[in-house]
Amino acid sequence: MEQAFRHKISIAPMIDITYEHFRVFFRLLTKNCVLYTEMIHENAINLSRVLKPFPLVLDYSQVEHPVVCQLGGNDPEKLAKAAQIAEQAGFDEINLNVGCPSERVQDGAFGACLMKEPHLVAQCMKKMKEAVKIPCTLKCRLGVDNLDSYEFVRNFVEIVYKEGEVNHFIMHARKAFLKGLNPHENRTVPPLKYDWVYQLKKEFPEIKFTLNGGIKCTEHIDQVLPNVDGIMIGRSAHENPWMFSDFDRLYYGGENQNYNRKEILEQYAEFVEEKRATGCKVSTQMCVKPIINLFNGESNNKRYRQFLSNTDNHKLGFRGMINQVIEHMHEWNQEALLVRPNDYKF
């Protein structure tokens, strides 16, 4: 499948959300939408390889493909080495984060800080592309601090495209503030400027552009997608995952997975149990997190969430807890539990 089509819809890399359990859960909803790891720093890969053939931070399941490993860092050689290890581990693509504005990335001078150094970004990208055979892409903002003109981001894209040979940019369609806003505010306060991304696509038609930021529903996707090559969805994927169960049909012209929510919960519980049998130490709370919003918008969603969040129920064992919540949902909202995406009125 060619890259532009593969990336028609993708799920944004999100710290403490897009870990392996979330990605496996999402594969029960859609087999085509591109998944991303959380951002992984170059050193977390390079310095931990001695622990096993591949670092624990690169753990993933074969069902996750297509899946992208997102890297953070600012050293071309170290990033190239990390990209090589991720490729050997089996990831489909490498992505460099040049958009995260958190204090942690500022302390390490990577993430959104790098937007101020387009030539260094180009060096990082070129080194990674030389080191691997899989695609290398870039995720960035439209600007940073007072470097927030269209001319700035246009120049940034041009330099990284020409010097770094990058042909796919994921554009978070707002600027980043390195000081004064926390990560949540940086995702909501700076205004979205979709028109800038549309203009970049017009000026660089040979580059693939994926737009990220503020996309919450299919109606919004349908408005934006004709102007770019792909859409990346972040928080809404966690807040309303069931919506994605119809995306293989809507955006990829194929058949949906078409699992109902009962089947999704059962298969996810099987994955969790199999993972724990290998010694995985992910807490029950973190195992619950991916599925906590599966009934978002449905009646008795609150009761479902409360049952899974109650630590007393965690003592049942994960599979036992899931079996019980399924029994409850038969009583609380059997229609939502058993309806299949092909029959659901989204």
List keywords for this structure.
346 residues, alpha/beta, TIM Barrel, Four Helix Bundle (Hemerythrin (Met), subunit A), 2 domains, nine-stranded parallel beta sheet, 9 strands, globular
Largest sheet: 9 strands, parallel
Query: Distance between termini?
Result: 28 Å
Helical run tally: 17
SSE order, one letter for each helix or strand = HEHEEHEHEHHEHEHHEHEHHHHHHH
Number of domains: 2
Helical residue percent band: 40-55%
* CATH class placement of the largest domain: Alpha Beta
The computed structural class is: alpha/beta
Question: What's the number of extended β-strand segments?
Answer: 9
Any overview of this molecule?
The chain has 346 residues and is α/β, with parallel strands linked by helices. It folds into 2 domains: 3-252, Alpha-Beta Barrel (TIM Barrel), CATH 3.20.20; 261-343, Up-down Bundle (Four Helix Bundle (Hemerythrin (Met), subunit A)), CATH 1.20.120. 44% of the residues lie in helices and 11% in strands. The protein has 17 helices and 9 strands. The protein has helices at residues 3-6, 20-27, 42-46, 76-89, 103-107, 118-131, 150-164, 183-186, 194-203, 218-224, 235-239, 247-252, 261-277, 284-288, 301-309, 311-314, 318-338; strands spanning 9-11, 35-36, 40-41, 67-72, 93-98, 136-141, 168-172, 208-212, 230-233. Strands 1, 2, 3, 4, 5, 6, 7, 8 and 9 form a 9-stranded parallel sheet that branches. Helix 4 packs parallel to helix 6. The longest helix has 21 residues, at 318-338. The protein starts with a helix and ends in an 8-residue tail after the last helix. The mean pLDDT is 93.
